[in-house]
Design goal:
With 432 residues, the chain is mostly beta strands. It has four helices and 23 strands. Bound molecules: ligand MTE and molybdenum atom. The site of the ligand Nc1nc2c(c(=O)[nH]1)N[C@H]1C(S)=C(S)[C@@H](COP(=O)(O)O)O[C@H]1N2 has 21 residues, from strand 3.
Length: 432
Amino acid sequence: MVRETGRNAANGNGLEASRRGFLGGTGLVAMGAAIGGALPLAGAGGVPSAHAQAAAPAPPAAPKGPQNLKFPGKSEGLVLLGDRPLVAETPENLLDDDTTPIEKFFIRNNGQLPEETKNPDAWKIAIDGEVNNKIEITLGELKSKHKAVTRRMVLECGGNGRSAFSPPARGNQWTNGGAGCAEWTGMPLADLLKAAGLKQTAKYTAHYSADLHLSGEAGKPSISRGVRLEKALDPHTMIVWGMNGKPLPNIHGGPVRLIVPGWAGSASQKWLTRITIRDREHDGPGMTEFSYRLPIKPMVPGGKADPANFRVMESMPVRSIVTSPANGAKFAAGTKELKLRGASWAGDLTVRQVDVSTDFGATWQRVKLDKPKNKYDLQRWTATVKLPSDGYFEIWSRATDSKGAMQPHQAGLWNPQGYGGNAMHRVAVLVG
Ligand SMILES: Nc1nc2c(c(=O)[nH]1)N[C@H]1C(S)=C(S)[C@@H](COP(=O)(O)O)O[C@H]1N2
Ligand SMILES: [Mo]
């Protein structure tokens, strides 16, 4: 994995930048000291990442502001996390639509972008490995032979929320914007696998694609992940050629990709060329050691990780975000009420409840939570909160999934590459 220095790599979620804007360095230190605290057993810099700067002896130099993405068809509101490979996230306040428009949808690449195909219908997909009949089929044939289905489903990077880990974890420093919810059109992968005839020995998929490894070395996959057969056969796991009613754009894996909803986005292979059915857990790039894996026994944050203590990450954890107001929003003096909007989702599960706090979690208020349109859709929420006075406030949001798991205050289950961080979302606002 490439180590990338994203925005606010050291201090997490961008909240610090807003505070600095409001308060200046001294105020920041005071604020951090008031709410920060030591994290037992942590490695160097053992304070929660959102408050990390409070521990510094002097106010640090102002970090570089976020760099905006410049890419055809994409909003300049997206924040560039890396340009080799190209990675960009959607600030939470741009995730305010029921269906994330293509121009706002996050981008995550591990290798080089393939050139856009001139003839999408001639694109070939093969199914081989532990099957009775190998299949090679063009996208054109797939489309003509199978009834297209459309589902609105969340795609979320396994590293979403990484910037909240303390000590910092390796990789793109996503806030909560490594996620989007699109209308995906295609067909269930299961239909193709059944047509190939799965052998008794079939256990796992292995996904291959047309993008080159960053090194440019021919035949070296940039990433090749897979899923347990049970997930591959779930009717929501799809081969997809349409996004929000348009042909799937090249940047999102067009002409054809997988969407494995609810699980780390890396399983959703873009530019899909082949699926090999395996008789064991796949071991391609992105499957082994600490890649998209979580500790079985919790490890000491920042400590030495033992590969034998890691298992493949599957469902993503529950998450909520405040999509309005934006972090750093200012309101006129005397504003006594704020209308909030947000979104929430929970991997393979649904969201049961979302609560918000304007007093650093001392008291919580339940929001009005919408139902998903179909399984794996995101759930929008709204709330109105009262403010007791002018001044600096943080809006915190926390979701609880259908099994009762709630977002923690701090990204937990530390792991070297920072997967599954789902700390509560916090936005800072200033009244007056
Ligand atoms: N072929 C290929 N597929 C890929 C990737 C990649 O680098 N190459 N990145 C994966 C990761 S890590 C994520 S989070 C999603 C991102 O999809 P998007 O760029 O359409 O948002 O694609 C996945 N599929
Ligand atoms: Mo990802």
